[in-house]
Design goal:
Length: 416
């Protein structure tokens, strides 16, 4: 990172960037939506490409001087299409929420019906939450998960048949199990709905064949690029050729202005990294690590939603223990573990308090954490849940966490 240059010219901001780097280095990052992108990706995001206006798309821009930008954006498109086997890709969405917004704009008119997963059951704000534009301008019907924490596809079908939505969304921010995209498409076809698969969280697992792909089933696939995919913060939309023009127009001029070409270059690099065999190994390790963490918690007598995980994340269910997600997430912070509170299915607590903590393995696996390390992480979390009143155990847990951070350095190479 160009920290020296920044320090020379703006010490106030440089100091804070360094403080944040230290925070990332000295905490066990279990926020399931976060990851550590490569230094190459970070470098590309900090380049002169930020200076260029490139409204439009490669070969069809509104401003002159886009010949080089066009080449970069085309490479990003080609790489992401290859990664997912998609016919068409738009790499301009600034974020996952922006990608979804463009699909809404293309497929729906205000007041149209949408069937999506309830936020408190693992869905995402941009899938129709009342506080998001998607919930304000559209008529949203929600499905949830059953008592065991699994999507009940018969229930989804029943809701679809009853409500005849125009758009069905498959995909979640907090669902630890395989999503059956084929079944979702069958349901969508029964009612003539479009199917949007939002793979923001599981994109890396889908790209490497470790989770079944929605490509070929969903009419539209949206994703973020910064979660398991391990790229810069951003979004992508993929679809078949028949929707390419409409989706491109929905991104620009429909919902965005100039694309962030420095971020698109960083996305291209991240897609290139994800096409390498090492990345598949990484994704395999992510799943193994999430499993080891879930198993350790269960072995220690704690509950996890659905009893385990098929992917990179899991949710600790604190109802039986009588603790709240808010308290435990704050206590974890005291022992150098970062995670977020999250509702569990049928949560008796409010979304600000919650009875769960969501835990993800994508970021720590990038640092090199192994299954053995994850067992230690599981012990640290168990200590906090069961013995937060015992200062000695809390101190010992903090030490264990810092040791793991030291064992797996982050951005420690020269120049970082
Ligand atoms: C994270 C996430 C998003 C939104 O991503 P942002 O980049 O934060 O806008 C959309 N959908 C799902 C399912 C997500 O998990």
């Amino acid at each position: 990172m160009e920290l020296d240059l920044i320090r020379k010219n703006d010490a106030e901001i440089a100091d804070l960037i360094e403080e944040e780097l230290k925070r990332q280095q000295n905490t066990i990052e279990l926020i399931a939506s976060e990851n550590f992108t490569s230094e190459t990706v970070i470098a590309a995001a900090g380049t002169v490409l930020t200076n260029k206006y490139a409204e439009g798309k490669p070969g069809k821009r509104y401003y002159n001087g886009c010949e080089v930008i066009d080449k970069i954006e085309k490479i990003a498109q080609e790489r992401v299409k290859k990664l997912f086997g998609a016919e068409h890709a738009n790499v301009q969405p600034h974020s996952g929420a922006q990608a979804n917004m463009a699909v809404f704009l293309y497929t729906l008119k205000p007041g149209d019906k949408v069937l999506s997963m309830d936020l408190s059951n693992g869905g995402h704000l941009s899938h129709g939450s009342p506080v998001n534009f998607s919930g304000m301008y559209f008529d949203v019907v929600s499905y949830g998960v059953n008592e065991e924490g699994f999507i009940d596809y018969d229930e989804v079908e029943k809701l679809a048949l009853e409500n005849k939505p125009k758009l069905i969304i498959a995909g979640a921010s907090n669902y630890p199990r395989i999503i059956d995209f084929k079944r979702f498409r069958e349901i969508a076809d029964k009612v003539g709905a479009y199917l949007l698969a939002d793979i923001a969280h599981i994109a890396g697992l889908v790209a490497t064949g470790l989770h079944p792909s929605p490509v070929g089933y969903a009419h539209f696939v949206t994703t973020t690029t910064h979660k398991t995919l391990r790229g810069p913060r951003g979004g992508v939309i993929m679809c078949g050729e028949e929707h390419a023009l409409g989706i491109d127009k929905a991104v620009f001029p429909g919902t965005q202005g100039g694309p962030l070409e420095h971020i698109i270059a960083a996305k291209a690099i991240a897609f290139g990294e994800a096409l390498k065999p090492e990345y598949k190994e990484y994704c395999k390790n992510v799943i193994a690590n999430a499993n080891a963490l879930a198993q350790t918690l269960v072995d220690n007598g704690l509950d996890v939603v659905s009893g385990g995980t098929d992917n990179h994340l899991l949710t600790l269910d604190l109802r039986k223990i009588g603790r709240t997600g808010k308290d435990i997430a704050n206590l974890l912070e005291e022992v150098h573990v970062t995670a977020n509170k999250n509702t569990v299915p049928n949560d008796p607590q409010s979304p600000f308090v919650t009875s769960g903590v969501r835990l993800g393995a994508a970021a720590v696996t990038t640092r090199g954490f192994t299954v053995e390390d994850m067992k230690v992480v599981g012990e640290i979390i168990t200590n906090v849940v069961k013995h937060s009143d015992d200062k000695d155990i809390m101190d010992k847990s903090a030490k264990m966490a810092l040791e793991l951070c030291k064992k797996h350095p982050l951005y420690a190479k020269e120049g970082a």
